[in-house]
Amino acid sequence: MQVARRRATALLCTAAAGSMLLSGCLQNPNQGGGSSSEGGGILADNAEADGDGVVTILGAFGGQEQEAFEASLTEFETSSGIDVQYTSDQDFTNTIQLRTGSGQQPDIAIFPQPGGLLGLADDGFIQPIDTYLDYDALDTTLVSGFLEAASQGGRTWGAPMRMAVKSLVWYPLAAYEAGGYDTEPANLTELADVATQIRDSGTAAWCMGWESDQATGWVGTDWIEEYMLRLWGPDVYDQWTSHQIPFNDERVIAAFDAYGELLDVPENVLGGRNAVLSVPFGEAMLPAFQEPPQCLMERQGNFVTGFFPDDVQADLDAEVGIFAFPPAAEGDYTGQPILGGGDLAALMNGNDEDAIAVMQFLTSPEFGGPWAEAGGWLSPHTTFDVSQYPDDVTRRTAEIVAEADVFRYDGSDLMPNAVGGGSFWTAMTEWVSGAKTAEQVTTDIENSWPDADDEEAS
C-alpha cells in the first residue's frame, strides 16, 4: 500500500513489451479510438471553460512531490502554452467525491487507488481513455497490468503516471556481502536458506514492523498478498481480490500459514512475532544499520528509503542492496510476480482539448524526468529513460519490475474500503498477536465483505 496516501493504490494480465514475459495477452477492451467524438465515447464534462489554456488537476501528493510534479510539467507548459494548475488535497478520496457531487470536478484527477476512479466512471464523470489516447501504443510501453487495473464495463477509464513497487527485499550492503549471503535467491526455499544462515551467525534474519497508528495492520496485508501471488498465481489472486472466492478459502488460509511459518521460526524476526505490532513500520529497518546489525532483511516497498538514516539516503548505492521477493519453488505457480500499485490519471472534461493534451503528456514515457531525478518516483513505462533516475538502486527497482512475469495491484486497495482499509487490517493484528487463528480472522473478513447493494451505496 502507498503509505503516504492511504497506505494504499484489477487485475492485471501480462501483455508486456521488451523484456517483459507474456503470460496472456491484454486485448483492447474499448470501443473504437481516436478523438473524443469517435468510438461511442462518453463525453464527461465539468463546469470549467474549455479551450481557455488552463487545465486544473486535483491529486493527493504535496510538498516535495508536488514540486517535482510541477517541475516535470514546466517544459510542456512552455511549449504548449497551457497553464497547468495543480491542487494537492490530503483528503483526496473524499474531496473528489464532494467536488464531483457539487459539479466542481477538476479537468483531471489523479487517483491513488482504482476504486474511486471506477466508482466515478460508473456515474459517468470520467472520459474513457480510448477516445483520446492510443490504447494499443500505451499498452506496449506500460508495465503489465496498469490499464487492466483501470478497466471496467468493457472500457478503460484512467492511465498511470506513477508506479509503486512492493515486492522488494532490502539489506545493508556491507554487512550482507560480508556474510556471503545470496543476493539473488531464486525462490522462497533459497530465501529461507539465506534466513537460516543469517540466524546461524547470531543475527535475526528479518527486520519487521507493523505499527502505523490507526492503519496498523497494512504491512501484514502486504505479506499475505505476496504469498497469495506466489503460492497460487495471478488468476487465483484476481479471484480473491474481487471476491469470486470467499476470503476464508483454504488457499487464503494457506497463505496465512506460510507467513506464520516465517514469523514463528525462533530468532527469524527481530523481537519475535509479538514485537512487530509495537515497531513503527518506518523504523523497522533501522537496526540493520547498527554496528553490528541486529537484523539483515526487510520486505518493503520502494518508498521505504525515505525512512532510512540520512547518511544511508545520501549514498544508497553504497549502503543498501535489493532483490525481488522471490517466487515459490514449486506448486501451482512458479513465475516471478511483483506486487505494487500506482497513481492513475483520469480525464473529467472530455470536451477540453487542452486537458486532453495534458493527459497525453502526463501518461506518456516522456513525462517525469525532473521527478525521477529528484528521487522517489518511478515511471510505469518500460521505455522510460532510466538514466534519469538518481541512483542504481532505483534503476535496479525498475529493472526488477521489467523482468517480472506478472504484476498485480495491492490487493487491499482493490477490495472495498470496509475490507481493504478496515477488517483486513484489524484481522491481521488479531492474527499476529495470537488472539485469533487464521481460520477465525479470514471468516471474520469474509463476513465483513459488503454485499453488492452496500458497495454501490458507498
Automatic annotation (TrEMBL):
- Pfam families registered for this protein in UniProt: SBP_bac_1
Decide whether keyword Transport is in the record.
yes
Q: Where is this region: Disordered?
A: 437-458
Q: Which UniProt keywords apply?
A: Transport
Q: Determine if Transport is one of this entry's keywords.
A: yes
Family membership noted in the UniProt record: Belongs to the bacterial solute-binding protein 1 family.
Indicate what this protein is called per its UniProt record. Alpha-glucosides-binding periplasmic protein AglE
Q: Which organism is it from?
A: Serinibacter arcticus
